[in-house]
């Protein structure tokens, strides 16, 4: 028996974690970029569903603007980083649908989606505690905003984690 061999279930779980994490990284890197945020703000109608959704995708924004306070730059970057790290961690820790005897596509989708909702909520909560106006009230509000982002954008990570089949 080889020490490096992995069972099919372990390989499927790590692959689902990897594809979901890659989707989260792409969402944060591309949609959270200053260029996308600027484009969404200037070229979409906030009163239309598509415009609202594209603006929402820019929520995990990370910026390096010199005219913003250092605390804001730090918390924005921390929020984006925590979102990816927590998404990867939760995708790994929620392997139930991938290892169940009758793993269904719907349960895999909801597992990835739910991991991203929780990751966004916790990333917003933790990063807001380091902000200039940090308080429990602002942290709870930020967590609600993050969870809303995760709910509407997390299906992308859920669909991507479906690609993680052995």
UniProtKB/TrEMBL annotation:
<feature type="transmembrane region" description="Helical">
    <location>
        <begin position="106"/>
        <end position="126"/>
    </location>
</feature>
<keyword id="KW-0812">Transmembrane</keyword>
<keyword id="KW-0472">Membrane</keyword>
<keyword id="KW-1133">Transmembrane helix</keyword>
<feature type="transmembrane region" description="Helical">
    <location>
        <begin position="146"/>
        <end position="164"/>
    </location>
</feature>
<protein>
    <submittedName>
        <fullName>Uncharacterized protein</fullName>
    </submittedName>
</protein>
<feature type="transmembrane region" description="Helical">
    <location>
        <begin position="77"/>
        <end position="94"/>
    </location>
</feature>
